Amino acid sequence: MHLYQFGRIKADLATQKNELTQLGFPTKERTLSDLARATFALFEPQAHGDAATREAWANRAVDDDTDLATWLATDRDVIKRDNFYNVALQYLGFQPRVDFDQQHPRTFMKQTGLPYQDADINNQDKFVSAVYLLLNTRTVNVVTLIDALAAKGLLNTLPERFTFFNGKSLPTFDTHQIIREVVWIESDLDTDGDGQRDMLEATIIRPRVTDKGVQVPALFTANPYFHGTNDQDVEAATHVPEPTLQVKAAGTQPAATDADWHPEQDQLPHREVTDTTKTASVFGDEPGIYSLNDYFLARGFATVYSAGVGTRGSDGLRSTGGPDETASAVAIIEWLDGNRRAFTTRTGHTAITAWWCNGNVAMTGKSYLGTLAIAAATSGVPALKTVISEAAISSWYDYYREQGLVVAPGGFQGEDADVLAIDTYSRQQAPGDANRVKAKWESRLKDISQAQDRQHGDYTPFWDVRNYRHNVAQIQCDFVSVHGLNDWNVKPRNVVKLHEALRTVGSSVHHKMFFHQGQHVYLNNIQSLDFADQMNLWLSNKLLGVDNDAVNALPDVEIQDNVEAAKWVTTPDFGHGTGVTNRQFQFGTDEPTAEFKDESTAIFNAEHDTSDSFERQIIQPDSPYSAARLWLPLLQADQDVVIEGTGTLHLRVRSDAPTAIISARLVDIGSAFRLQPTASIVARGNYPLGFDWQYENTLEFAPQKQPNAAQLISFSHANLQNPVDGATAVTVNPGEWVDMQLTLQPTRYHLPAGRQLVLIVHGADMAQTIRPTATPTITVDLKASHLDLPFRNDQD
Question: Which stretches make up the Xaa-Pro dipeptidyl-peptidase C-terminal domain (predicted)?
């Protein structure tokens, strides 16, 4: 176990005393022993009264022979450091003899990454500093000790207002007194063509103290799934992977026009206002869906959820990432900032403002939710002060297509933009409402199906307007991105290309990035990292103006190692800068060319494989797909190396057919107990989000219980007719050489000594591409091909 803590900031003694005093902690008593007794009494907030406190103390050991109650009963001029930290570790949730040796508590603390003062305590100021540091130290249950004590009632006597400790907001807000309400925001859209502005439902969850004049910031999650999904319809609409790869006409697809970005619509009248109120008319009965939002609700941040245009309770139609969905999210932010109107009912005329909001908004969420956060940020809307997006799409082409191919998101073979539109069109679940726009929805869906163009897979204007990276120059707010390095659903290319786009336009935006070893998951309850605490430092600065230097205090890039469990490293950038060098791999062989016949679909059917089993089998040294691939050894590692960044594969290939799928996989070969890509539960319901509030499971990425022989590092796919990018197709004459460039998914991969790095070149990918029945023979000119890979040379 290692508990990393990047969210703790340094404070001088005067600040420490001031912050402790505001919480009711003593900083000066008659004697050191008196100070210790008064302080440790506050460490037992669940104990009401002296007798209960002494009983609690008696359950904690100072050493192998003495309990805390007995030890505190004796006056002393010096507190031995090991006595203090034996007790401290127990308050942090660790057990003597199980987790640590009471003869050497600091040895365990050093191994676990816990901070300590390496000296005996011989005066009250040193004791105050030791206590302040301890309260800001992480417990085994993810949170810091001050948060753990707050969950037991330590802060219940404080006023219900923002209280900051070590630069972060404390859980001083009563989660038993929450206001849940629904309003409808008037948009500029008319996506259902009824001549009226689309009204957008939003659910607000805010502290009741806001009714007494306390203004709070808002965490807004644009969640298209908030009101449910249409699973049966999705199953029926999911595409069967096509058996034929179409031959294309040569040419370059045009970029989106202004009309694509801003479709013409009639001038829309504003709704008449006949009354105003501060009281909503509808109770918000939908629960929150993100525990990080719930964590911050206890700390005074309101939560706002809106499913957006075309969902149950709102007007309009879905478009899967189109400009209207961006405008839908922006409208909510503008209302929170007082710059847009809302009403107490969907069709009524009583207006309501976000009078309780201080005008500062952050967006949160994973996947489609985080995607809309990126989209809204590219609008430059002033009230959006920061974004915390996780596993988010920055270009929908990179989600559903790749270099001229239809490529499904991992785990969802056959899904496409039209399928996702169907899935999120929850307006359909209110049949009386849906019937009124049935014909318009069917027309919209037909348009999406045609425009997405599954026949060719090219980068068309449909995808161009869904590429948010075009507008990164308009982003005004600092950004946090979280992504799994094993996320083959929303692939890592999305976050890295966003980061590179910000660099390209010379943006002054600070972009903090977290890369974990998981798949398509949240990060806030991973035990080894203080993600929630870091975000508390970040949001306290961005939304509440706390001068905690969060931008400089937090690392720019935090990356979880793939070899050692619970290990995180930090870098100043990802895949660039000092310490990163490129290495070129030639495909050394005595043979100038190599070929394979792409019989992947036939083998897949004969083996009765699934997408998952194909992904396992294609990378094995001994595989039923061996004849349908090239196996190109690159490196036998004689020492540990770290790949970091985006690899580029240059291939000269020819096919005996006018088209073909070319896929590449970078693989780690060698038997090992690698980390599982799905985090395991360390403890159930032990991570407290506030006092008598919600609890979350604690998770960690653990080694597999059985060794495996191969691990996918990265991959890429391309249509032979699109040798460079998705927008330009060329004519392929059978038997003629084509020079291709394939961009691998970005990665950070620690390859240990003794393992082998291998490149696999093959054809169709049964898990992600279509499944052609044709069996072209692919020949690779090995002498004219190579792989460029970036390596980090300054990382332990």
Answer: 536-788
